[in-house]
Amino acid sequence: MARFLSPEWVASFDAALSTLDLSDVVAAAGARSLAAADGTFSVAQVVRGAPGPDGVDQELRVVLTVAGGRAHLELDPEGRVAGTATIVLAYPDALAMAQGELDPADALAAGRVRVRGDLAALVAGQDVLAGAAAQLGSELTELTDPADAGGATGTVTETD
Hints:
Blueprint: H1 7-18, H2 23-31, E1 41-51, E2 57-67, E3 70-75, E4 85-90, H3 91-98, H4 104-109, E5 113-117, H5 119-136
Parallel strand pairs: 1-4
Antiparallel strand pairs: 1-2, 2-3, 4-5
């Protein structure tokens, strides 16, 4: 198992996504969002305070790109992929959301998440990930090292 959002975790998550035909999920998400209506959008996630390989906290940028009924997840440290929407949050909150322990709307309302861009694309991205999770079942939860579970949550201070 890999640490959440490590390069190995992202590669494993992307490999799992690559096996899925998400056309129906993407079409349903697009029907509720002008930003995703054509089935092509991306959601960038900037995660602050992620454990680095040398034990020093780092900032990570991960992008979910949806196109042609498929989803792709990649690390994007240089910001090459423009996000239709970008969310900024602390590592413990990102992990809690990924594990279903923190509702994104609650985190947003509490100021623990910042959003830039088209909020509808963010919702569409969540719909696509939920559809992927439903198809993959426990395979996604088995990707993450359980040692990542728990920890303090924090408020993100927007500096850009």
